[in-house]
Amino acid sequence: MELSKNSSLSFLSLGDNNLSNVELKRRWGPIETSNCPLKELSLEKCKLSVANCQDLALLLTSTQEMTHLYLGINQLQDIGKKSLTHLNLWKNNLGDEGVKFLYEALSRPDCNLQYLDSSDCSFMVECCRELAHSLKHNRNVKILDVGKTDGQDDGVKELCSVLKRPNCVLETLGLEKCNLTPDCCQHLSSVLRSSKSLVNLNLLGNDLGLNTVNTL
Fold first, then answer.
1. How far is Cα 62 from Cα 200, in angstroms, rounded to an integer?
2. Domain that residue 29 falls in
């Protein structure tokens, strides 16, 4: 299958296939010279690794129409594309270093990302600081999920300092199972009182206690 030979396909899902030993560029052909209309591509659970990043980078820099890329449950590091608006990295073992590179890209003025799912990506408090710094410079991200990570109260404190800024446009924040405690209540309450954009906040799976919940 070569995407360069298809002039109508706009969504393609190859999820749950073992593509680890396949040169991906052979699957989509010479798309850098084509008018491939593909807008959404799902490669979740394809056993991709760092070795596949070169081919993915070629795809991302060659397609003019793609806005949604799903890479959940793979072993990837950093890849980027200026026109990308939706990126799903759910359940990748990025670690602090991988997430740092990702969030550095978020702070670039030409980053157009609006949706980022980096939940269950094995990072800790320090990455929340990197993310908070990136959001200070980003005017596009509206949906962010960092759930199922070890962000803890200190990490949420860093994020809240940015969410209270009047120029923050974040509408949805996922903090499910981030090992939060009642100590983060003051910071979250302050955000809920001052944020002009936040409308969805996911705190499931955190031991906040009844008093904290009532306060929020």
1. 35
2. 3-215
Question: Nearest to residue 137, comparing CAs of 118, 156, 157, 165?
Answer: 165
* The pLDDT of residue 211: 84
CATH number of residue 44's parent domain: 3.80.10.10
SS3 154: helix
- Which helix (H) or strand (E) covers residue 70, if one does? strand 68-70
Please tell me the total count of domains within the chain. Answer: 1
Report the pLDDT value the prediction gives residue 180, as an integer from 0 to 100: 93
pLDDT at position 49 is 65
Query: In terms of pTM, does the model score above 0.70?
Result: no
In this structure, the number of other CB atoms found within 10 A of the CB of residue 139 comes to 12
Q: Could you give the CA distance from residue 154 to residue 177 in angstroms, rounded to a whole number?
A: 14
Residues 6+ apart with CB under 8 A from 131: 99, 103, 106, 144, 146, 158, 159
Q: Give the pLDDT means over successive 10-residue stretches in the chain (216 positions).
A: 64 74 57 63 72 61 69 61 74 71 78 87 82 88 92 91 90 94 92 92 92 82
Residue 43 near residue 20 (C-beta atoms within 8 A): no
| Cα(81)–Cα(66) distance, integer angstroms | 10
